[in-house]
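Q: Predict the assembly, please.
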Amino acid sequence: MRKKIGTAMVVGAGISGIRSALDLAEFGYSVTLVDKAPNIGGILSQLDYQFPNDRCGMCKMLPLVNRDSSSQYCLRKGLFHENINIMLGTRLTNIEGEPGKFKVILKQKPSSVDPDLCTGCGECARVCPVLVPDSFNMGLSERKAIYLPVPHNIPNTYTIDFSSCTRCGECVSACPTGAVKLPEEKRKNFNILVVDDELIVRDSLKEWLEDEGFSVEMADSGQTALDMLKQNTYHLMLTDIKMPGMDGVELLKEAKKDLPELPVVMMTAYATVETAIEAMKQGALDYLLKPFDPETFTPKVLEIYQTLEVVQEIELGVNAIIVSTGTEYFDPLQSNNTFGYGRYPDVVTSREFERLLSGTGPENGLLQRQSDKKPLKKIAWFQCVGSRDIQTNADFCSSICCMHAIKEARLVKEKLGHNIETTIFYMDMRAFGKSFHQYKNQAQNEYDVCFSRSRVHSVTENKELGGLMVQYVDQKGTRNEEQFDMVVLSIGQRPSSGTKELARITELPLNKWGFCESEPFSTSLSSKEGIFFGGSFAGLKDISESVIGSSSAALSASRFIHSIGGSLSSETDEEIELKDVSRQMPSVLIVVCTCGKPQIEGVEQEQLKTNLLRDPAVNDIVFIENTCTALGLSNLKEVLEKSNANRMLIGACLPHVYTGKVNQLCKGTGFHPQAVNVVDIYSQDALKAKDEGGQSLESIIEQKLKMGFAHLKRMDPPLAPIASSIQKALVVGGGIAGMTASLAVADHGFKVDLVESQDQLGGNLFWLKSTIEGNDIKELFEKTVKKIENHPLVKVHTQAEITCSFGSVGNFHTSAHSKKEDKPLSFEHGVAILATGGKEALTTSYGYGTSKAIVTQKEFALNLDDGSINPASLESVVMIQCVESREQDKKNYCSRVCCATALKNALLLKEKNPQVGIYVLYRDMMTTGFLESYYTRARKEDVIFIQYDVENKPEITKDGETIKITAFEPILGKNIEISADLLILATGLAPDFSDAMAGNFGVRKDEFGFFQEAESKWRPVDSLKEGIFSCGICNSPRNITESIATAEAAAQRALRILGDNKILAGSIVAQVHPSLCSLCERCIEACPYDARYIHHENTHVAVNPIMCQGCGSCAVVCPNSASALAGFIDQQLFDVIDSAF
Amino acid sequence: MSETAIKLRKREKTSLFDQVKELLPDGGNLNLCLTCGLCSSGCPATGLVSMDPRKMLRMIALGLDEEVLASDWPWMCTMCQRCIYACPMKIDIPQLIYNIRAQRPREERPKGILGSCDMALKNDTNSAMGTNEEDFIFVVEDVLEQYQEEQPEFAEMQAPIDKEGAEFFLNQNSREPVTEPDEMVPLWKILHLAGVDWTYGSKGWAGENYCMFLADDDAWKHVVQTQTDQTHKLKCKTYLNTE
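A: Predicted assembly structure:
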């Protein structure tokens, strides 16, 4: 793996942090990925299903070239990458130094369970007597005090929750590997001084704290405490505030004079909380509320103890920092209106519901009524709980909940059957992504999900039938009362709990809702140099937006590191070269892990040895204790170094645990990692087979080892293919996306050819003036064009059309025709970024073209600009949204920009002429995220919004100069007739992405005519063909800032490949035996990665190993077994099957 | 269909909507309505005369002032505030209702409320039942005496009227002294057992305020003024509203 000098730290290891970290690591930087949680994955670790395919696809974020550098299994279970150091249970506490040379201080909670010793066997949890609510299942199930934070993680180390641990020591003695150590001794040396004038308080606190193992002394007044502080060393002082004589605050001041480092915690009654908060400003660490009880007091003190004492401080030098700590969810109990949450068990939040649906959830996915565990028949979702609600300080849209609810409703139907009734109560169904509208339509038409445009006031219990009663009004105002078995509250997003602290550390401002906001026209730039935002930290984003945003953050960070010289000098790793053992007679060393306590002993071990050694290809059999632990591995290394074997089989449990460890072992010894096979001999399945089938454990072990052996015996470990790569990029399209992508690549020192069909760069930036936020688009346009023109590495070719392109990642050859010079152009490049843009769609609806008073949004902007529309002369303006959009056989997607544009224009008009009547006829207002506040502002300015349905569109008649618009007003149930001086149509966006363009680059168009991304959520700017990326409007409808983010993301994806002059494939790739190939081409059709082509001599099908991802589809469809996957050839697999019986 | 269509064009600044907005802090957020229907789903008056709070607000927003003023629906509102309590835009529908009521000529307002307000204005007691000072004092003293005698554990219980310097000035719904005098006693007992220092006022003791529901600003003010004057006169620290 190539390495660069630059280092980055990514704070927050949810999907955004993972995306940024992987992007930077793949480019070659070393990355420290920290998270305060004991696991990676963030919220996504609890979500099993994501739309549009209602499955998970997180693993698609893993590297596609040089695959062997990272883990290649389920990303929800874990991650490793050679260039990423993951630090869990870690908080960022300070940043010092200057941009480019940051010194960060991290605090890591060391686990009391040694990850090198823990085998995840679970004995500790079995004996633990404590039961507490399990946060992984949102408190819907229980766990022990020693537990797995995410049950499906690999490797999975147990963690102790000290706030509930009773330190009984059962786990210590139960642990077969001695991995658990309780920090008993340390507590005894932790001296606490309790100061209170009331004896009873002092006594009980002393008793509770001593029960926890601390050393406690007491003082009855401030003065006594001061004297004691002079004589002894205390690690923590707890002091009452209200005391006769010297009070707690004075004591704090006095104590801090001599002992500024002494942690002091104030104890106070509710009435004096403000004094306590004041005291915190004077250096108190925290405060505790009286009256105390041990259930709340003890955990709080333990928490303080954890942060003070147990935590380990780490100092790290990094060049750049990406903050991607995500968001948290709104707690319905914080609202006036709780909808009975917390009171009725059948009212759950969407996150709780997600756990209830999950097979790993509290009820194993068996969804039932929570109150009485009866089957469910009807479920309701309430949208906008804690969103679009000024009563909970949420004048924003949380952006994700609509799609989340639709997904949950569809899943319910799929899992429990279509007879379950599902109703979503909503205001606007914000299905605003490219494919979202269709997903929603499917839910409505194919899944019979009922969409009810209504917000519910409150929920009551149905004592008779069970479940809940929901009262709502329909559009007409008729009140309905309906029984539901469950109500799911679609809870909105809030800044994550650490945001304030992070804002303090980074000195970044927060907006009025407590979020950090990125700089204009960027989703990733903060106002601080060297600090960047990834994912939803600085805004409300769904998965694909987070993935785009965090790639954009990686790009910004990478560009910054490059600018300070980080990516220029590369280090060469001194790696031991892998021994080429292909074509050697197999000689297999079999290692059997005895897993702590030997499962099979003495005679049985000998018998196993004799049986296996019958095959001459077995070199030797050794038994090693706890192979997965550090000690076990070093024993294994010793055995391996002495052995002359050229293959190795390890029999243990949880093979995934070994992926990283085997790689490390091989690096140290030169042993080929593909010549190592790990088989699971102790899994639950094996033990179950023993119990059920009466088979003996040794015979199961023997069988499993024989299967693994058969696989290895015929293994011919290939060395990963290497291809040369041209470190140049081609960008097609010179709008803002294309220009941004070009600059992003060129700023890293790589040459870029930018091809634009028009005579000037700029695209839609030509006519756009400013954004709804008031950001100057003209300035952006001029600045960007100037940068492009002055950049020595960007060569612009205007008036040029692509004529053809061929090749594969790293080696593309593209021709174009220059109209300007009337000559052919040809480009050799390693990657291509397609940014061909799009424009406002044309229309013939609503009398467009018959009157100059009927214009599109773009024309309105232009007319306003050139003065042909005078706002002062207007009395009444009507805007119609969704013109020929979101309709069957028309543009059946949401164009995303029109609602914001309508608001921008409406506010502009109102500013120039407050008396003008503005009527916006809309289907669903799509003002997601912070844009919602402009919708609110427009209403505040008396813009009237009238909702219409697609079945009942507004109608137009002309009356001289005036346009008469008739529409149905659903609240009043009557028609309204508006006489308008101007009718503005929102016709939406249409992509400029021709069939020829797609064909030339071997990529696909989606059903709407946009670029077909490899995967809408996880690979939103990639094509399935590696090396081709897209951004901007040809990828999906987007505004400028979003287009820029996709451009940066595409550039970052391209940089992974451009960063090196060679590309390393994965070791598991497909091969073709030319003599067997009949050229039937089935494999070419089957290959999802376009990695197959007909050999230039037309004799057989060939494979591009760089593009091949080792999926094996080709081997499956090949009728002759001419196609085979390295490591999975027929003979090998037949042998494996044979040895299974 | 154009016959019944609502005709819209320019915004008229003289509309009822704008008048009420002027009166309320933040304009009562009246124009922020998302037409979500939450208010109507929680309103006890929804559906009466085919109206509901959302519809009413919408009509006013679209300038249908005459229809709204002609409707009896605003008089069916109980002012319970369930709407504003949960409204995501915190729209002050109760205040809007009040101001709509105030637009109707006084004599055309509902008889029951009008009569009760007028009755309250007749005496300084503010009683909507028309109970005067003497009658109230008589009833209170009579009932108290009866309980002191019949229930020896409450022999010491007091029900003071016009006691100067009491901590609390307590009001009283005037229906009880007239129709259900025994209903007054439970509260007396609680106050007695809690050792609370309280008093009724001979003036301004009636707690109900029909003049407010009538949307008669001056009369409403008069009623409140009578109560506060008496409270101040007796130098009570706290006015305890039992209504």
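Chain B has two domains: 16-104, 111-240. The longest helix of chain B spans residues 133-150.
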